[in-house]
Here is the input.
Amino acid sequence: MSCYLETGQTTCHDPDGEQIPCQGSGQDAEFARGLAWPSPRFEAGGETAVDRLTGLTWTLDANPVELPLDWRAALGFIDQTNRERAHGFDDWRMPSRKDLRSLIDAAAINSDMPGT
Here is the structure.
């Protein structure tokens, strides 16, 4: 099983953006490899949502602390959050780049968050 997510690309395009047949293009839509995105992607409950694709739990509040924070302060916030068992969990961590990239839906025009 692939550890990469499907890009969601369903059509293929030339350098000018014109749609072309996918066969032989080498573009993602030709192969449709990767893990399929579940529908719905997120399952909200209380103040958190479980990402059914990655298994990660995210807070619904994307900014639970006053930003910006330096690295040390951010790690301190995570430690405090775990000590307090925020939202019933004590295993919170900073999201990795891979975690954050998993939120991007490359098939969407506004790809900051996938549809739920």
